[in-house]
Write a structure and sequence with these properties.
- Helix 5 crosses helix 6 and helix 6 crosses helix 8.
- The protein is α/β, with parallel strands linked by helices.
- 41% of the residues lie in helices and 19% in strands.
- Bound molecules: 5'-O-[(R)-(carboxyoxy)(hydroxy)phosphoryl]adenosine and zinc ion.
Length: 341
């Protein structure tokens, strides 16, 4: 079965074709980073307009690269939410219309389910049940996963998402957008331990998190400093260290609470090398296996949407004659599919 995946929930137009026998046949991405860079964050209206410009050429590109004809495509999956309303509408309208024209079923996919299942694009896949840490620009969730669609959120950020904290902190330090990659690059030249930032909510029981206070801590430290390049790097190091440490502590706690020995990390922040290393380190000293996608499938992409959509289409789910998008869509409202894929 071959599925065309369309991702347009935020600032990346991602298109891919996934085949359940051969894997990813083609994968194309257009990132709007340059478009939004001057504003230090995503401007929704500019994002929608750019998806309109890019989506058809990218679909043509993956069809040509995969050697597929319209008749070879068995279904179309597009991100239906959560995300920016206008941006979602572009992918949904194009996906639903193409499915109509090509006479195949279409399905609206939950963006975070796409992220959560992305490690299954790799060779060594996790087995149900497992714990998932989903860390992106809009979400920070600890999820107890017992099957596809069976997602119990057992911990989450009460304010800023981790990716958002990286982005806002980078902006405060006068760095570029998106903040995650720039901060982690800069942190490499930071002096280890010159600053120590708080680990929010680790001294209280529970799995919820909070990152907005950390951001204020960074701002105060920066304003009171000598504002040199070295100080900026030292602050980047301390900020990243505080985030990674907090996430590691919460993961350890959630693994203990669930009794699971497999941990999936996914979403844009799971591309963070430091976070991967810390969790791999944890796996060396405990009976734990850690799974994550390769970096290009951590951040938004069409392949994860094609993969998640394929599972749902295969189980018989599909759109009716219309379509809908859901800018807000709790992960635990999804239909449970069972534990085979
Ligand atoms: O999953 P994603 O591409 O989009 C959303 O669904 O939000 O995640 C984007 C987020 C951004 O906040 C970005 O700063 C962060 O992921 N990010 C990183 C890294 N690469 C991307 N954060 C930390 N370290 C990275 N290497
Ligand atoms: Zn995402």
């Amino acid at each position: 079965m071959k599925v065309l995946g369309i991702e347009t929930s935020c600032d990346e137009t991602g298109i891919a074709i996934y085949d359940d026998e051969q894997g990813i046949l083609a994968d194309a991405l257009y990132s709007q980073i340059a478009l939004h860079a001057d504003y230090g964050g995503v401007v929704p209206e500019l994002a929608s307009r750019d998806h309109v410009r890019r989506i058809i050429p990218l679909i043509k590109q993956v069809m040509s690269e995969s050697g597929c004809q319209p008749g070879d495509i068995d279904g179309i999956a597009y991100t239906a939410g959560p995300g920016l309303m206008g941006a979602l509408m572009v992918g949904a309208a194009v996906g639903r219309s193409l499915a109509w024209t090509w006479q195949c079923p279409s399905i609206g996919v939950h963006h975070m389910e796409g992220h959560l299942l992305a490690p299954m694009l790799e060779e060594n896949v996790p087995r149900f049940p497992f714990l998932a840490l989903l860390v992106s620009g809009g979400h920070t969730l600890l999820v107890d996963v017992t099957a596809i669609g069976s997602y119990k959120v057992i911990g989450e950020s009460l304010d800023d998402a981790v990716g958002e904290a990286f982005d806002k902190t980078a902006k405060m330090l006068g760095l570029g957008y998106p903040g995650g990659p720039v901060i982690s690059k800069l942190a490499e030249s930071g002096i280890t331990g010159r600053y120590k930032f708080p680990r929010p909510m680790v001294n209280r029981p529970g799995l919820d998190m909070s990152f907005s206070g950390l951001k204020t801590f960074v701002l105060n430290t920066w304003m009171e400093s000598d504002k040199t390049d070295q100080t900026r790097a030292d602050i980047a190091w301390a900020f990243q260290d505080a985030i990674v440490d907090t996430l590691t502590i919460k993961c350890k706690r959630a693994l203990k609470a669930t009794g699971y020995q497999q941990l999936v990390i996914a979403g844009g922040v799971s591309a963070n090398q430091n976070l991967r290393e810390r969790l791999n380190q944890l796996a060396k000293t405990s009976p734990l296996e850690v799974f994550y996608p390769q970096p290009q499938y951590c951040t938004d992409n069409g392949a994860m949407i094609a993969f998640a959509g394929l599972q749902r289409l295969k189980a018989g789910e599909h759109d009716g004659e219309g379509f809908s998008t859901r800018p807000r869509w709790p992960l635990d409202e999804l239909e449970v599919l069972g534990n085979k894929f």
